[in-house]
Write a structure and sequence with these properties.
This protein has helices at residues 21-33, 44-51, 70-79, 99-105, 119-132; strands at residues 13-17, 37-41, 58-61, 88-92, 110-113, 146-148, 155-157. It is an alpha/beta fold and 158 residues long. The model is unreliable at 135-143 (pLDDT under 50). The strands form two sheets. It has a five-stranded parallel β-sheet with strand order 2-1-3-4-5, sandwiched between helices. Strands 6-7 form a two-stranded antiparallel sheet. The protein is 33% helix and 18% strand. The longest helix has 14 residues, at 119-132. α1 packs across α5 and α2 (44-51) packs parallel to α3 (70-79). It has a single domain (13-135, 142-157), classed as Response regulator (Rossmann fold, 3-Layer(aba) Sandwich), CATH 3.40.50.
């Protein structure tokens, strides 16, 4: 009698920050069908709150989010030790406007423009970025409950 062993792999978790419910639903369904666990955030504050308790394998980020925009979420992730190495895909209609913004967006693994992107293209980008990123053990985040943006004195409670 032969016994078959199935290699068990951990399901990859993606935090997807997107305020357009139609776009989110279309891409989320495609990613989940491919075997990814997708956690949605409807705005920048929601994304930052979820990232205060979660270290996903990948973040898909729209730049034009309400409450805190995608650039602020990206800045937040890159200043938190538990999130600093999480790969990020920018999926947005927004284009880069200046050198400072370009420098910040260099921390993203890939940038896609919504109007030119299909669900299949996003899936290909996700697989490419996840393949490139080093495999690291999941760690519990150790974040402060408030975050100060570098040019601000106003704390953000997350």
């Amino acid at each position: 009698m032969s016994v078959y062993f199935k290699l068990m792999t951990r399901v990859k978790t993606i935090l997807y920050a997107e305020d357009d419910a139609v776009v989110l639903t279309a891409y989320r369904m495609r990613l989940e069908k491919a075997g990814y666990h997708v956690i949605a955030a409807s705005d920048g504050l929601d994304a930052m709150r979820k990232l205060s308790t979660l270290v996903p394998d990948l973040i898909i980020l729209d730049l034009m989010l309400p409450k805190f925009n995608g650039e602020e979420v990206l800045q937040f992730t890159r200043t938190q030790s538990g999130l600093a190495r999480v790969p990020i895909i920018i999926l947005s209609t927004n284009s880069v406007r200046d050198a400072a913004q370009e420098n910040l967006l260099e921390h993203a693994g890939k940038r896609l423009i919504k109007s030119q992107c299909t669900a299949g293209m996003l899936l290909d980008a996700v697989e490419e970025v996840l393949q490139r990123s080093p495999a690291e053990p999941i760690q519990e985040p150790t974040f402060p409950r408030t975050f100060f943006f570098p040019d601000s004195r106003q704390p953000v409670a997350v």
